[in-house]
């Protein structure tokens, strides 16, 4: 038997979603139906919705979610009905070259399911799951390998942001940049992921931790999460960062916006020999350029960071230890709790650079 749920259905790039009935099939072999408790609204969802990132239509977006298992298909033993789980939008195949060489975040097959319909509309039209998850709905059906059991002692609602914002931010600091105690860090962009980078840098012992954003309204939250300094993203930024770091620039600069202009700002804020980690997802037609001389002379490392270079099965339990101790506060990155129908307003806040994470809460 199938299951009909309410979902935010996006029909084409640049158009707002409609709340419609979506028919989910019973989970087949290796598949699991999850009743969604909450779903974070990520900038990647905005990029999928407006065509910046490729997406097949119609689609139910949303990939940062948590919920409880309702039903499992044949052969599923990793989770069971009633168990709380976190969605993993990039499940590793564990068999491709990248997986076999310790880079599961670059798995060749992680997004295969995003291009395959997972449900249908009432009229039979196939529906695609955004990043393979389809979390902007009352329930979804995913592969068992796309689920991580919720660690004990972690709130099952705000745990939604562990699946992308917190995991990406924590991983950027610990897996990609490998920040060491006493190193300086500057974080450009204080959305949900940027606020998570900020917290992770503090936990890693970075000092100073410099938070940067276009909105002065974010200073109080940034300082409460560990920023020792707050700077506005303006023409004085490079000099201000150097003034806070002995005239050199930061050991680590994190770009968490997805913009060539901000990548360049992060590059300029780093010291000679420093590391620039690009966490934000930018557009293909937004090039960033460097001269051959400065690449040689500055001797900086510029690296991309996909999904925090993380392995969710390994890293989420580690993050949960900091959550349980109170050292890491995932709930603090959530600045707006919303209903499913409020997604367009959440997207507009992201476009304006306002707030942290919006969280769609179901069954409240």
UniProtKB/TrEMBL annotation:
Domain of life where this protein originates: Bacteria
InterPro entries referenced in this protein's UniProt entry, alphabetically: ADH-like_C, ADH-like_N, ADH_Zn_CS, ER, GroES-like_sf, NAD(P)-bd_dom_sf
Gene3D superfamilies reported in the protein's UniProt record: Medium-chain alcohol dehydrogenases, catalytic domain, NAD(P)-binding Rossmann-like Domain
A matching Pfam family: ADH_N
Sorted UniProt keywords: Metal-binding, Oxidoreductase, Zinc
Cofactor(s), names only, from the UniProt record: Zn(2+)
GO molecular function: oxidoreductase activity; zinc ion binding
Residue ranges constituting the Enoyl reductase (ER) domain according to the UniProt record: 14-360
Entry similarity comment: Belongs to the zinc-containing alcohol dehydrogenase family.
Protein name (record): S-(Hydroxymethyl)glutathione dehydrogenase / alcohol dehydrogenase
Source species of the chain: Nocardiopsis flavescens
Species lineage: Bacteria, Bacillati, Actinomycetota, Actinomycetes, Streptosporangiales
